[in-house]
Amino acid sequence: MDSVLAVLLWRDGAEHGAAGRKGRTDPVREMIPLEEARALVCGAVEKLPVETVELLDAVGRVVAADQTSDIDVAPFAHSAMDGFALRAAEIAEATEEAPATLRVIAEIGAGDVFEGTIDDGECVRIMTGACLPADADAVVKYEIVGVVEGDGKPGSVVSFAAPTKVGSNIRAAGEEAHAGDVVVEAGDVLTAAGVGFLAGCGVLEVPVYRRPRVAVIATGSELVPPSEVPGPGKIRNSNSYAMAACAREAGAEAVMLPIVQDTFEALRDAVAAAAREYDLVVTTGGAANGDFDFIKPVVAELGELMMTTVNIRPGKAQTFGMVEGTPVFGLPGNPAAAYVGFQLLIRPALRTMQGYRFMDHPVVKARLTADEKNRDPRRIYLRANLTRTAEGYEVTPAKNQSSGLFGPIQKTNCLAVMPEGTAPQPAGSIVDCLLLDIPEEVVL
Questions:
Q1: Which residues does the UniProt record annotate as the domain MoaB/Mog (predicted)?
Q2: Which of 327, 50, 344, 54 lies closest to 211 in space, CA to CA?
Q3: Single pTM value for the model
Q4: Assigned domain for 358 exists
């Protein structure tokens, strides 16, 4: 079918309440609120199947089943520092004026076990991590023990100028976990510390939700690969790289597919093929209503078109639908608009597919350092720099807010939010700022 005819047919169907050429009778609403858009998107995707990966490969991922320890952790009581193991009662009366003295009868290094007995008037030199002798109930750190005879090693006499408590400087057996205890729960995001914890519990493989495989497709007859020097009328394809990077930051595996020319047939074939092979498809460009904007009629032709515009700026044109059970997003071609759309809509979808519990970027309130004159019925996301002062957070929007630029995003660290219908905001106004480089799990 001719490209222009396909678009005209789709537009005619949409105007008459059929959101595509499959005869739907529920029209796709124009300009829906962001919260509704996110609920729609996240409600349309599901957690991916579980896979078992090696422990180190599970870091940062969502654990899909409770993990238990096969032993007590620690498996034995041990010293928390270098010192002398003894019975606390032996030095209960010790003072600086009348120190208690004990004879050192042995030395225990990490990995060694002392199987002898500690009699009255005796102690054992012990190293950090070494197994506590059965007769000892306290450890006194090395630095506060005086040496009366010898060098502090076996055969020496050492002195104690103060009493100590039972259990001091001892890490008890099972302090972290007992055999059979759940040590990492299903739904937890495994941290680097968690990897160490599981290793100590004997867990070397972890069930996690599979990473989504994301196809990234840039559309536009003007695009050339970044390896080429653009000729007249051409520009380099930077969107594919940025969106693939965003997908990787969200935990997904991203594949950049070939550039698609501005025809209905080319985009239809590319989207259909990608939807069969990947878990999620992202296109950039062709999301508006121009003569060469085809993503909306393509999704309507191939599946179910569920969303076309969202009440945000930049990034009003946000296409979303399902093709053969695969979520398909059509982002704008303008870099900043595509980036904002990805962060606000696609990233939550990818996190949902991986089993994450938290979807919202951390938000702080900050004081505008300059007048913000923009006025728009849409919710505006300004690329901005957040700084912390003695009086609190301050935010300075970038001077250039063009939706066609990646540079201001690279040089800023947040999105300052101007609510829908907001009048111009003078310097000193308090606004919300989305922190895009901090995990959603962080509580501020």
A1: 215-352
A2: 50
A3: 0.86
A4: no
Domain assignment of residue 192, yes or no: yes
Secondary structure (3-state) at 28: coil
CATH assignment of the domain containing 215: 3.40.980.10
Q: Please report, as a single letter, which amino acid is at residue 60.
A: G
Domain hosting residue 159, numbered range: 78-171
> pLDDT exceeding 90 applies to what percent of the chain?
86
Contacts of 197 (CB under 8 A, 6+ apart): 73, 176, 183, 184
CATH number of residue 416's parent domain: 2.40.340.10
Residue 9 pLDDT grade (very low, low, confident, very high; cuts 50, 70, 90): low
pLDDT at 14: 56
DSSP 64-104: -S-EE-SS-BSSS-EESSSEEEE-GGGGTT--SSS-EEEEE
Q: How many domains does the chain have?
A: 4
- Asked whether residue 156 falls in the same domain as residue 226, the answer is no
The CA angle 287-290-291, to the nearest 5 degrees, is 120
Helix (H, G, I), strand (E, B) or coil at 201: coil
Side chain identity at residue 289, one-letter code: N
pLDDT in the model for residue 111:
95
Give me the pLDDT at residue 372, please: 87
Using CA atoms of 300, 304, 309, 311 in order, give the dihedral in degrees to the nearest 10: 170
Give 72's Cβ-side CA count (13 Å radius).
10
The answer to whether residues 344 and 284 belong to one domain is yes
Q: What is the pLDDT of residue 287?
A: 87
Q: How far is CA 67 from CA 190, 194, 354, in A?
A: 11, 11, 18
Residue of 29 and 59 predicted with greater confidence = 59
